[in-house]
Amino acid sequence: MKHKIKRSASLLLTTLVFSMGVLPILSWVGIAQVQQKQNSQISTMDKQTISAFENRVKNYVKLRNQVKAKLPKLSKSSTPEQLESYRKSFEESLRAARVGAKRGDVFNTEGSDYIRRTLKSEFKGKDRAQLREIVFDAQTQAVKLRVNYPYPEPTELVEMPATVLLNLPQLPKEIKYRFVGHHLLLVDRDNNLIIDYMLDALP
């Protein structure tokens, strides 16, 4: 039991450290080495799938930055009310710009299949059980999976463990992966908009 708790705590700590961006420099060197090794093991077809996925993400970022550029600028002394008003305006303007967005625009069939295979191969046995425990312990049952709608703010966000992030297509700083049950979401960091989601990502 102690061993299980220790492994779960280690997985959570790795997740938090990675997501907070406080890894020491030597750790980043290690991560780069791991990524280089993993890239050499990825097939040509999978590399094309990853590249296409990342390009679709970049297209979203380009659009959202264009929308953001048209919003009134915030001052350093902005009040919490002004910040919330800005976030809401950003969300509504972006939703209007993506009025035709639908599931699969970013997570297409090939990209989703690659992510499922990656999660299945990287998490086996106890590691998979612990990941599932972390995900399903989170209070995300009330989250409705709807593209171009905001992720409910009070709802717990389940971070991706660093070991998984190293194997998945890389995301720009504006976007994050999030689990809701078995399902995987792309969420905008600034306005919590659900960009896209894929079903049954978690094995």
Structure at a glance:
55% of the residues lie in helices and 8% in strands. It is mostly helical and 203 residues long. It has one domain.
Description of the structure:
It is globular and about 50 Å long. The protein has helices at 2-20, 25-41, 44-69, 80-97, 109-122, 125-137, 162-165; strands at residues 175-180, 183-188, 194-198. The chain has one domain (2-198). α1 crosses α6 (125-137) and α3 packs across α4 (80-97). It is mainly α and 203 residues long. Helix content is 55%, strand content 8%. The longest helix is centred in the first third of the chain and has 26 residues, at 44-69. The protein has a 3-stranded antiparallel β-sheet with strand order 1-2-3, with no helix packed on it.
Quickly list its features:
disordered N terminus; 8% strand; 203 residues; three-stranded antiparallel beta sheet; mainly alpha; 7 helices; 55% helix
Number of domains: 1
Cα shape: globular
Rg over C-alpha atoms, rounded to the nearest angstrom? 18 Å
Number of strands: 3
Biggest sheet layout = 3 strands, antiparallel
Parts with pLDDT < 50 across at least 5 consecutive residues? 2-34
Order of helices and strands: HHHHHHHEEE
Compute the average pLDDT: 79
- How many helix segments? 7
Helix content: 40-55%
- Separation, N- and C-terminal Cα atoms: 23 Å
Q: Which class of secondary structure composition applies to the elements?
A: mainly alpha
Percentage of residues in DSSP E strands: 5-15%
Q: Name the assembly state.
A: single chain
Q: Order of strands across the biggest sheet?
A: 1-2-3
